[in-house]
Backbone:
């Protein structure tokens, strides 16, 4: 509601004043939503659907990232990917009569803590290995490993694993100040035991005629060599696709 005063003065400096009010016929209220604080994890939806107009059926929406003047979108809701820190977005709505209003919303994205489970590791059955990064987590955080089996300490940044089966370990890191969570995984591959028998009986009876090395096929780059007691190489194979049958030069 706007109030105006009209004053009329004649040549004798006599005056008379009158007051009148002008009520606005159109109401245009932009609503960009409430400010948000969240963990940096991808997309956020800006919602201007609560904006209001009482006249002029058509509404035009324009979203901007402040202070940039480039239009990001022209719909009531908009998906954005803000960077770490504070980013402001401005909504301008206009009705079909040309009346407009502006509102601004601020998005605060807290950075995720460092989470580094370390490199994948291969070890033989029965061995142990230290897992985790260097460092595994940033300062001011707490962490935990899943699964927590076969680990010396599941809350240590670098626990010792004594896994007997291939296991995917995931470290979950929580920032104690912001509550933001990040995670990372590594694979502990347990290589099978290689059982190498120390004798064969290549007499053609179908029993133990070949030198069978169990699970060697899981190591395709293997090299197998057989020497006699004088150090002479009798057999060589890369990959061991055809096992040794006790023969040397056909005998």
Residues:
């Amino acid at each position: 509601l706007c109030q105006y005063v009209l004053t009329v003065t004649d040549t004798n400096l006599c005056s008379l004043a009158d007051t009148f009010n002008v009520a606005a016929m159109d109401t245009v209220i932009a609503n960009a939503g409430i400010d948000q604080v969240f963990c940096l994890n991808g997309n956020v939806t800006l919602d201007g659907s609560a904006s209001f107009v009482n006249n002029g059926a058509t509404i035009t929406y324009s979203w901007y990232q402040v202070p940039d003047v480039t239009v990001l979108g022209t719909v009531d809701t908009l998906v954005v990917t803000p960077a770490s820190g504070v980013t402001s977005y401005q909504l301008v709505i206009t009705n079909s009569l040309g009346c407009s209003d502006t509102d601004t919303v601020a998005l605060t994205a807290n950075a995720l803590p460092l989470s580094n489970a370390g490199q994948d590791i291969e070890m033989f059955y029965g061995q142990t290995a230290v897992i985790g990064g260097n460092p595994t987590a940033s300062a001011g955080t707490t962490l935990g490993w899943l699964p927590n089996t076969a680990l010396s300490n599941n809350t240590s940044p670098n626990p010792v694993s004594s896994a007997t089966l291939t296991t995917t370990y995931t470290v979950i890191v929580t920032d104690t100040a912001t509550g933001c969570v990040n995670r990372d995984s590594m694979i502990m591959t347990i290589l099978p035991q290689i059982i190498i028998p120390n004798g064969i009986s290549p007499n053609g009876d179908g029993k133990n005629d070949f030198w069978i090395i169990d699970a060697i096929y899981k190591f395709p780059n293997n090299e197998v060599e057989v020497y006699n007691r004088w150090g002479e190489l009798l057999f060589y194979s890369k990959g061991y696709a055809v096992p040794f049958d006790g023969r040397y030069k056909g005998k």
